[in-house]
Amino acid sequence: MATLAQLEDQIRKLQRRADVLRGKESVEVIAKIRAMMDEYGLTTADLAKAGAGAGSKNGAVRPKLPPKYRDPLSGATWSGHARPPAWIKDAPDRSVYLIDAVSRKNGATKRASRKSGRSTA
Q: Which stretches make up the DNA-binding protein H-NS-like C-terminal domain (predicted)?
């Protein structure tokens, strides 16, 4: 059985290989995109304009919500809105995945006391 150090070394080597492959593929993809843009006479301004209304009925751009939860294993995040990802959907207590839970609790306490007119100090 492999040791943890051996597995971590394998992971590092594989990540380097993946990064090299991603770099090579991205060069090819960029070349294809540029060729298509030239073929259709598109500019980056056209792309920005087309993307501004994507996914909304009235064309308004909604800001991306900041992440509220983080998976400690993969580092994946979730804002807490829409469908929960697989890593958190069946969790009995989602608070263990909260990002910066201590400051969130302090902030919630301060907001609650401001509403009630009491001081937290």
A: 67-91
Nearest in space to 52 (alpha carbons), one of 61, 64, 65, 43: 61
Judge whether 61 and 52 are in contact, CB under 8 Å. yes
pTM of the model: 0.36
For the segment 49-72, what is each residue's pLDDT rounded down to a tens digit? 877 655 555 556 677 889 999 998
Cα-trace Rg, the chain: 23
3-state secondary structure of 75: coil
Task: Please list, in sequence order, all residues whose beta carbon lies within 8 angstroms of the beta carbon of residue 2, skipping any fewer than 6 positions away.
Answer: 10
Let me know: does 95 contact 101? Beta carbons within 8 Å. yes
- How far apart are alpha carbons 35 and 6 in whole angstroms? 44
- For residue 91, count other CB atoms closer than 10 A to its CB: 13
* Neighbouring-strand partners of residue 78: 69
Contact by Cβ (8 Å): 43, 34 = no
